[in-house]
């Protein structure tokens, strides 16, 4: 139980330093978007995919960049790019491309001055460590970017909750959008 508490304390430390008002603004921003696309690599990509699934359940037109059924992105769409370092080439390139097409870009990162953030119109700063251990203000007993991934998961779940309140997502409709092939 001691290790569990240490990890929960680490997550709590990050969450207390996240600007909740920015999450409210992000949820409202997403609710006004035509379609929402997400990108991330590795475990950040898994967090992004999880977010897209939750948004789809809530009635959003959400897509994962790189999937075979993902349509082309267009002006008025929103791209949410998740990268702890803000340097992941695929996320940066995709953000740059989406921005050039007239899309709004949201960066979820520990590096608000990163290359990814420079292409974003909206940045959510996640004050956690990544695998690069570049955030000197935060320590973690966990390997690689686990603290970042866990924090992003919670942050994006909060955004989904706020989004559901804004869009007045109906619980029955949300359930009906959940996979029934499992």
General description of the model:
GO terms for molecular function: carbohydrate derivative binding; isomerase activity. With 182 residues, the protein is of the alpha/beta class. It has one domain (2-168): Glucose-6-phosphate isomerase like protein, domain 1 (Rossmann fold). It is 48% helix and 13% strand. It is built from 7 helices and 5 strands; from the N terminus they run ααβαββαβαβαα. It has helices at 2-15, 20-31, 42-57, 89-100, 115-118, 146-167, 171-177; strands at 36-40, 62-64, 78-82, 104-109, 122-125. Strands 2-1-3-4-5 form a 5-stranded parallel sheet, with helices on both faces. α1 (2-15) packs across α6, α2 crosses α6 (146-167) and α3 runs parallel beside α6. The radius of gyration is 16 Å and the shape is globular.
Gist of the model:
This protein has 182 residues and is α/β, with parallel strands linked by helices.
How do the helices and strands line up, and which of them pair or pack?
Elements: H1 2-15, H2 20-31, E1 36-40, H3 42-57, E2 62-64, E3 78-82, H4 89-100, E4 104-109, H5 115-118, E5 122-125, H6 146-167, H7 171-177
Parallel strand pairs: 1-2, 1-3, 3-4, 4-5
